[in-house]
Amino acid sequence: MLKKSRSRNGGGGGNNRSSSGGVVVLLIVVVVVVTVVITVVVVTVVAVVVVVAVVEVIVIVVINVAVQVVATFTIYSDL
Q1: What are the tens digits of pLDDT across the range 18-59?
Q2: Alpha helix (H) ranges present in 1-79?
């Protein structure tokens, strides 16, 4: 029983040490959170750039098709 109580006290000491270790854990959590935030921002920026590029391509294609349609209608109306 005494040995067990001593081990429990030792565990208590470990808990007291974990208070300083808690600072390390907090630092790790902060680093992880910052990393996640940076990752999310980068992914969002990349996604926006990709979407803008795709929209530009779609707009260019639509404009080209519209020009061709107008050109064909103009040709047929001339005929």
Answers
A1: 556 678 889 999 999 999 999 999 999 999 999 999 999 999
A2: 2-78
What is the rounded distance in angstroms from the CA atom of residue 65 to the CA atom of residue 58? 10
Cα dihedral 72, 74, 78, 79, rounded to 10, equals: 20
Structure tokens at 7: 């081990």
Q: Where does the pLDDT of residue 15 fall: very low under 50, low under 70, confident under 90, or very high at 90 and above?
A: very low
- Judged on CB neighbours under 10 Å (0-12, 13-18, 19+), 60 is exposed
Six-digit token string for 63: 């404009």
Which residues, 6 or more positions from 73, have their beta carbon under 8 angstroms from its beta carbon? none
CA-to-CA distance for 60 and 54, rounded, in angstroms? 10
What single DSSP character describes residue 7? H
